């Protein structure tokens, strides 16, 4: 198949899923064209059948807001005409589904029909899709896509509850993980990058937006650090990072919290952690939790969104109420102080990642969904 993938290039789950799916489809022999405004950070360009096309957004003086959606639609058309795209896969509803619909409408003048699959990733529905000006646009993008997928059952139910859309039109296809790259015990030399040998490492990876509740994380960690020799290693960058640094200073935690910055080869750092901590307000799925699990690291995460579909509390980690930092601290202490339990949870986490979410299991589902879509 000739497949066009539309995604955000920035650090965030939807871009990771889009890039990893593109690489895996190319590996299977499909011709994949990734379209975005910059090279996605996980894009793997070592194959001739995996190509990146940049959306050029012109900065004409009349444009206070250059029309990225139109530039993307124009780029899709160019790629579709040059390579005969069979199908477009839009990751994140706004604006990708809309640009795809526009490109498809324009192509219908002369080309055979190009199908459109849209994957909803979470905040496109729960935050952007709820804003007054975008709500109907998001519903329109869903209605006009040939097929729509959600990354969890919870996101599907939420989408059907929040937006006007037909239940039969929206199915669930979860995130996946390359269990050969995310492996327990990988890269032990990286351990010293995170902390001293005698410290227990709590790892968090995100784009530090409010929805991740990173300040809760530091407050909960303060309660952990008072009881065990632990370090909080924070990977990523985002709007809440400065506030987090200020809170770390205020709580006197400077020597126990490391700000690592962005780190693309996250599979090198994940296995070094004793636990992964994700105190988000909401996660439609929680890809970073799955990445940690594949590396054999148990997860302490909020009981929210699709996280219960990924982390089984009491088996592969502990799910805690959103915002209850004492319960978060207690859950982390439970695991950090009990090596036997922590290792058992870590082993179960790896097993769950392999048996339920391995790329080998999920990729055929994508191929079959594409084939069904092409058949109409
Ligand atoms: O919130 C993020 O971290 C980024 C966002 C995105 O769209 O890039 O992530 C969402 O998509 C991921 C991949 O499907 C999910 O694993 C994340 O849970 C989801 N984030 C939220 O729902 C907040």
Q: How do the helices and strands line up, and which of them pair or pack?
A:
Layout: E1 2-6, H1 13-27, E2 31-36, E3 50-54, H2 68-83, E4 87-91, H3 93-107, E5 115-120, H4 123-126, H5 132-144, E6 147-150, H6 153-162, E7 170-172, H7 191-194, E8 200-205, H8 214-225, E9 230-235, H9 241-250, E10 257-261, H10 266-269, E11 275-278, H11 287-294, E12 299-302, E13 317-320, H12 325-336, H13 339-357, H14 359-375
Helix pairs in contact: 2-3, 3-5, 8-9, 8-12, 11-13
Residues 12-15, 17, 92, 121-123, 151, 175, 206-207, 211, 282-287 line the site of ligand GMT.
- Poorly predicted residue ranges: none
**CATH H-tier superfamily of the largest domain:** Glycogen Phosphorylase B
Quantity of strands, as a count: 13
Q: What helical percentage do the residues reach?
A: 40-55%
End-to-end separation:
15 Å
Shape: globular
Total helix count? Answer: 14
Description:
The protein contains 14 helices and 13 strands. The two termini are 15 Å apart. It folds into two domains: 2-176 and 358-375, Rossmann fold (3-Layer(aba) Sandwich); 188-356, Rossmann fold, CATH 3.40.50.2000. The chain has helices at 13-27, 68-83, 93-107, 123-126, 132-144, 153-162, 191-194, 214-225, 241-250, 266-269, 287-294, 325-336, 339-357, 359-375; strands at residues 2-6, 31-36, 50-54, 87-91, 115-120, 147-150, 170-172, 200-205, 230-235, 257-261, 275-278, 299-302, 317-320. It has a seven-stranded parallel beta sheet with strand order 3-2-1-4-5-6-7, with helices on both faces. Strands 10-9-8-11-12-13 form a six-stranded parallel beta sheet, with helices on both faces. The protein is an alpha/beta fold and 376 residues long. Ligand GMT binds at residues 12-15, 17, 92, 121-123, 151, 175, 206-207, 211, 282-287.
């Amino acid at each position: 198949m000739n497949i066009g993938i539309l995604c955000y290039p920035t650090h965030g789950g939807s871009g990771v899923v889009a890039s990893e799916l593109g690489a895996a489809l190319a590996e299977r022999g499909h011709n994949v064209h990734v379209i975005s405004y910059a090279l996605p950070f996980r894009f793997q360009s070592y194959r001739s059948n995996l190509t990146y096309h940049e959306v050029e957004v012109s900065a004409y003086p009349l444009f206070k807001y250059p029309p990225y959606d139109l530039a993307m639609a124009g780029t899709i058309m160019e790629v579709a005409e040059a390579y005969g795209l069979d199908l477009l896969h839009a990751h994140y509803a706004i604006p990708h589904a809309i640009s795809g619909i526009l490109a498809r409408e324009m192509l219908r003048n002369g080309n055979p029909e190009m199908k459109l699959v849209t994957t909803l990733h979470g905040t496109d529905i729960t935050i952007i899709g709820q804003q007054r000006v975008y709500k109907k646009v998001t519903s329109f993008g869903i209605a006009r896509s040939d097929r729509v997928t959600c990354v969890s059952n919870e996101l599907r139910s939420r989408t059907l509850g929040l937006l006007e859309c037909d239940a039969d039109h929206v199915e669930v296809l979860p995130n996946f993980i390359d269990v050969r790259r995310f492996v327990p015990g990988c890269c032990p030399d990286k351990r010293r990058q995170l902390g001293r040998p005698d410290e227990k490492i709590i790892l968090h990876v995100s784009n530090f937006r409010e929805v991740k509740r990173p300040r809760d994380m530091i407050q909960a960690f303060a309660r952990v650090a008072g009881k065990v020799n632990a370090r909080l290693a924070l990977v990523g960058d985002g709007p809440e990072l400065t506030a987090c640094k200020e809170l770390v200073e205020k709580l006197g935690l400077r020597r126990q919290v490391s700000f690592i910055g962005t780190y693309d080869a996250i599979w090198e750092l994940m296995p070094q952690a004793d636990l992964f901590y994700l105190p988000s307000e909401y996660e439609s799925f929680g890809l970073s939790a799955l990445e940690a699990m594949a590396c054999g690291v148990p997860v302490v995460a909020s009981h929210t969104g699709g996280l219960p579909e990924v982390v089984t509390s009491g088996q592969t980690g502990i799910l805690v109420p959103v915002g209850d930092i004492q319960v978060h601290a207690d859950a982390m202490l439970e695991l950090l102080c009990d090596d036997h339990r922590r290792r058992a949870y870590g082993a179960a986490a790896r097993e769950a990642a392999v048996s339920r979410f391995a790329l080998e299991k999920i990729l055929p589902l994508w191929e079959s969904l594409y084939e069904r879509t092409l058949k109409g």
